[in-house]
Design goal:
Elements lengths: L2 H27 L1 H8 L11 E2 L15 E2 L8 E3 L5 E3 H16 L4 E5 L4 H17 L4 H8 L16 E6 L6 H11 L5 E3 L6 H4 L7 E4 L5 H7 L3 H7 L4
Parallel strand pairs: 1-2
Antiparallel strand pairs: 3-4, 5-6, 6-8, 7-8
Helix pairs in contact: 4-5
Length: about 240
């Protein structure tokens, strides 16, 4: 990427960060979530989800609330130094990316890697209870929680191909980590999986920490397209 292009992407990240601040203020009052719930969704009904097809290039498997992880899907896992686990197929590029971040004075950590289905269920249950404590009905709390936490069987973390990357707070800030990733993650085969403004397509609100490995053959194409993974796969035939 040229220096000019990098500056342009940095400017975009700054604009996104400002937009997220505005978004977060609205979310704190619950009004943004209420408005999102009133909009038409992408047909996201977990109970009606089909089993995801495993493409020739398995790193392009699409998992969301319309496409469940196949029952027989069992990734080979590699454990990281902090105890988190990832699909062994992404380990080398993940480590290379982290090494280059540290060389640039940015210190990342994988906060979340692979999750079992039971761990995903626990996360969803915790989010539902949090919304119930705010006074929402059980039905409404569940609907709102699923805008933030994928239902079990529909989370990329259960694939082992997704990582939540945050900062080692003793050495870096989350903003520094997120900006570096936004600028460079595609070089290592990772994409920002849940971009801002795509919640009605992905089913998940903007998450600047959540990166998904798709491989170096496709990551730059997807990142530069401005599309989320669902949109890009629908537009492009790769198998």
């Amino acid at each position: 990427m040229s220096r000019t292009k990098k500056k342009k992407r940095g400017g975009i990240f700054a604009a996104l960060t400002a937009a997220v601040v505005i978004f977060a203020v609205g979310t704190a009052s619950g009004k943004v979530l209420e408005r999102l719930a009133e909009l038409p969704d992408y047909g996201m009904t977990v109970s009606a989800a089909k089993s995801a097809e495993i493409p020739e290039d398995r790193f392009l498997i699409l998992v969301n609330s319309k496409n469940k992880i196949p029952e027989n899907y069992e990734p080979e896992l590699t454990e990281l130094s902090n105890g988190q686990r990832v699909d062994s197929g992404i380990y080398t590029e993940l480590q290379r990316m982290f090494d280059d971040m540290r060389a640039d004075g940015i210190y990342p950590v994988v906060g979340e890697g692979y999750r079992t289905r039971s761990e995903q269920q626990s996360m969803l249950d915790d989010k539902i209870r949090a919304f119930e404590k705010e006074g929402y009905s059980e039905k409404r709390a569940r609907a709102m929680a699923e805008e933030w936490v994928a239902a079990p069987g529909t989370s990329e973390h259960e694939l082992g191909l997704a990582v939540d990357i945050n900062a080692d707070k003793d050495n870096s800030s989350n903003e520094e980590v997120y900006e570096w990733l936004y600028e460079n993650a595609y070089r290592y085969g990772f994409i920002l999986r849940y971009p801002i403004g795509k919640a009605l397509v992905t089913g998940i609100d903007y998450e600047p920490w959540h990166y998904r490995y798709v491989g170096t053959d496709y990551a730059e194409k997807i990142a530069e397209s401005g599309l989320c993974l669902e949109e890009w796969l629908e537009k492009n035939s790769v198998n």
